[in-house]
Amino acid sequence: RLNNLHFSSVRISCFSYFSKTNYKLHLFVYNLLTGEMRVTAKLWRPLSSKPNPMSITSDYIGPPDKESNLRPYVRHIPPNETSLEKRLRESRIMVEEWNHEFWSRHNKRFYEEKEEFLKLHKTADDSEVSADKLSEFYKSFLDKNHKIHLLYNISWYCKNFDLLILATQVNIHNFLLKLKKKR
């Protein structure tokens, strides 16, 4: 009973932008609620619109996109961003856009093929298609797109590895700057 109240506030926050830190709190609260634990305080503050990257102090996570189902990021742009940090931020944005485009196309194709399958397999009494029939569609869709998924995963791993190398370079650079300042 009390959980329904909290779930409604969780739902509201899912349709708004909120900071990455607050998103972690949101997930923590959600996990507590699904585990039948009670939390009395609201730990995040949803925003009504997309924040300006120049005025925020951390990355923000938006609501799931209608086509790709991915949550877009609004990346914080620090005032004293180094060229290496800028390269990392821009690379992250490019990878996120690539990921968004892939899943938008993939999901569009999936829903079109599913709709076609449902039209072909509807029975005369206009009832729902059985779960067994739908599982046949899901299996055939996955089999047909196996090579695409494999290539996507390989590309995704390569892009993430590149991001990891860049992030490591940024962290080493920042560490060396801190050491230099201590002297």
Automatic annotation (TrEMBL):
Q: Which organism is it from?
A: Megaselia scalaris (Humpbacked fly)
- Annotated InterPro entries: COA8 (IPR018796)
Say yes or no: keyword Protease present: no
* Keyword set, alphabetical order: Membrane, Mitochondrion, Mitochondrion inner membrane, Transit peptide
Cite a single Pfam family from the UniProt record. Answer: COA8
Q: Where does this chain mainly localize? A: mitochondrion
Return the GO cellular component terms, semicolon-separated: mitochondrial inner membrane
Looking at the record's lineage, which domain of life comes first?
Eukaryota
**Name of this protein:** Apoptogenic protein 1, mitochondrial
Protein family per UniProt: Belongs to the COA8 family.
Where in or outside the cell? Mitochondrion inner membrane
Q: How does it sit in the membrane?
A: Peripheral membrane protein
Q: Which GO terms describe its biological process?
A: intrinsic apoptotic signaling pathway
